[in-house]
Amino acid sequence: MSKIDVTRSVVDEERYFAVLDEKQLERLIAQAVATAAGVDLDQPGVYVKRAYVTSRDSSTGPRKEAHCEIVVDRRKHAGEEAS
Asked: Rounded distance, CA 41 to CA 46, Å?
């Protein structure tokens, strides 16, 4: 993932601020889903098929949701275990 630039200011309190680009947001979403699923994104045969944020209007106002699909290709894992 590309570096996240964080600014810091200190007066009577510390504040941190960052702007994340689309790829950084996708990676954070994928990392959160992978952690919840107990999957390591850095393992062979594991990849993010899709990760994105949608927005829609609902009866209670605008709503944003993140969608993520992670694939664990068992054929890749089986090939490595046989080696």
From this structure: 6
